[in-house]
Every structure is written in C-alpha cells, then in structure tokens.
Amino acid sequence: MFRKLKEAFARFIDTASSILTSREKLLEAIEEFKLNLVASDVAYEAAEDIAAQLSRRVEEGRVKRREDLVEALREILLGYFTNLGALDLVSLARSRKPFKIVFLGVNGVGKTTTIAKIAVYMRGNGFKPLMVAADTFRAGAQEQLKIHSERTGIPVFTGRYGWDPAALAYDAVQYGVGRGFDVFLIDTAGRMHVDVDLVNELKKVVRVVKPNVKILVVDALTGNDAVEQARFFNEAVGVDGVVVTKVDAYEEGGVPLSLAYVLGKPILFVGVGQDYKDLKPFNPIEYVDRVLAGLR
Ligand SMILES: Nc1nc2c(ncn2[C@@H]2O[C@H](COP(=O)(O)OP(=O)(O)OP(=O)(O)O)[C@@H](O)[C@H]2O)c(=O)[nH]1
Ligand SMILES: [Mg+2]
C-alpha cells in the first residue's frame, strides 16, 4: 500500500540529508522530488505546493538536519488534511432522520460494493438502512444490488430499467420512512463523468431527494483521473465527502493527498478489499505516518 509514494519520500530524504549544507543542491533535489511525487499520483498542483513550501523553509534556513526535513514534510502533508471538516455519518444520521445519502461516481469504481459496505457499517451502528437501486441505466445494476441485499440481509428498493432515477429514489424514501427505515443509501448510474445526460439526471436526483450527504466514490487505481472526477462531480452536483476504493491494491499512494488538496473535502473511508468488512475510516495521521514510515 502506497509503496511508490513512500519510496519517493525516502529517496528525497536520503538525497537531501547528504547535501544539507548546499542550498543550491537542496533546491535542485526538491525539484526532482516534485517530479517523483507526480509519478506517485500526487496532483501536479499539490506537488508544486509541497516543493514550494519545502523550498521556502530551505531559503529561510530552517532546514539544518535530516529531522527538520522529515518534520517539515509531516507538517506540510498534515496541513492539507486539517480544515477539511469532519463528516461522521453515524453522528449525522443520529440527528437527521430520515438520513439520505446519494452515491456518485463513474462506472466500475466500486460504488455499489461501497454502498453495501456502508449499509453494513450503519446497521452495525444501530440503524435500519435501506439500499436504493436508483441505477436504472446499466444492465445488471438492479440485480447487483439485490445480490448484496441477499448476502447482507439488508433490504433493497428496486425499480425497472429505464425508470426515472429521481422518482424511484423519492418513492424509496416514502416507502422506507413508513416502514421504519432511517438510513437511505442511494445508488446512481455511473457513466463517463463527462456525460451530459448523466449530470442532468444526477442533478435531478439531488433536487428531488434532497440528500443529507453526497458521497463520491473514486477508484485509487485510476490515479489522477480520480482527482479529475472529484473536481468534475463537485462542480456539477457538489460533493460532501469521498470514499477511495481499491486501496488494498494501490501502490502509487498519492490519491488521498491529491483529493485533500484539490477537492478540499474529507475522505470518509477507504475500501481495502471486496468483503463487506473491508471498509476503513480514513485517518489522515495514519496515512501520513504510513507514507513517512521509517523516516526519522
Ligand atoms: N480490491 C478491491 N476491490 C474492490 C473494492 N471495492 C470494489 N471492488 C471491486 O470492484 C469491482 C467493481 O465494483 P462495483 O461495486 O460493481 O462498482 P460500481 O462502481 O458499482 O460499477 P458499475 O455499477 O458497473 O458502474 C467489483 O469486483 C468489486 O468487488 C476495494 O476496495 N478493493
Ligand atoms: Mg454499480
């Protein structure tokens, strides 16, 4: 997990600590470090900011020892995650009933799986979730959520292909509220994110359902594209928080950092496998510790 990003930090710290007395060489090393960050999925503007912040510290004579570099990096990285605001689904759902979550994301990122995982998580916290199959577009989408429903024992509200997803989701909430459901997890169709019809459809779902939270699901393995998707969905429909999937197989490492920097919205969970239990709350300190592991 995050191997390449970790290596980029380690290599930079090793190189830089051997040239601490030469300001000029140090600044060169920072430039090279920047490119290695980009190669590890750190969005270009984030990499530039890291390099600029480091260079400033060097210019100000604040980098004298190896530890100064490590400390600087830790501070810079953590800085991107502070002020993102917290988004705790459990505490939010306690005070807002019915609690409606709309899930957004392009196809194949793991949206439906994530919905099932979060449904299980919410049930474990004492809620009565209903999954809503408002993807009436892609063949198989309804069945897919039904399978998750059978496996988890969490009910699903389905409809017919071609139905208006906004109307379906609205009906699902009406239906569920009358039957004691308190958390609604609404699946939406994922197409190419640039698809105009999709965007209009999502806007309508949001207008009609008035979700408490809009969660974007992105696949870590898509690297910079995940960040572009985040930018796009946020501008088109608004995003309150993100789930990053397939982190179990993810070596580059930069996507969480880039999302924090570019989107400025909290990462709620990371997906670390295909099982329902494979959903972990994202902890920025753990992430930063992991990518800076062993650099003391
Ligand atoms: N390794 C791993 N696989 C995952 C994770 N999340 C989802 N997957 C797998 O990714 C594949 C796609 O997941 P789906 O949930 O069907 O994705 P989707 O976004 O709903 O896809 P569409 O409905 O086709 O747009 C499935 O095989 C999942 O098991 C994860 O965190 N780790
Ligand atoms: Mg799906």
From TrEMBL:
Stored HAMAP family: FtsY
Topology relative to the membrane: Peripheral membrane protein
Role this protein plays: Involved in targeting and insertion of nascent membrane proteins into the cytoplasmic membrane. Acts as a receptor for the complex formed by the signal recognition particle (SRP) and the ribosome-nascent chain (RNC).
GO molecular function terms noted in the UniProt entry: GTP binding; GTPase activity; signal recognition particle binding
One Pfam family of this chain: SRP54_N
EC number of the protein: 3.6.5.4
Description of how the protein assembles with itself and partners: Part of the signal recognition particle protein translocation system, which is composed of SRP and FtsY.
Subcellular location: Cell membrane; Cytoplasm
Protein name: Signal recognition particle receptor FtsY
Gene Ontology biological process terms, A to Z: SRP-dependent cotranslational protein targeting to membrane
InterPro entries: AAA+_ATPase, P-loop_NTPase, Signal_recog_particl_SRP54_hlx, SR_rcpt_FtsY, SRP/SRP_N, SRP54_GTPase_dom, SRP54_N_sf
Binding locations of GTP: 105-112, 187-191, 245-248
Domain called SRP54-type proteins GTP-binding: residue spans: 266-279
Organism: Desulfurococcus mucosus (strain ATCC 35584 / DSM 2162 / JCM 9187 / O7/1)
Catalytic reactions on record: GTP + H2O = GDP + phosphate + H(+)
Gene Ontology CC annotation, any one: cytoplasm
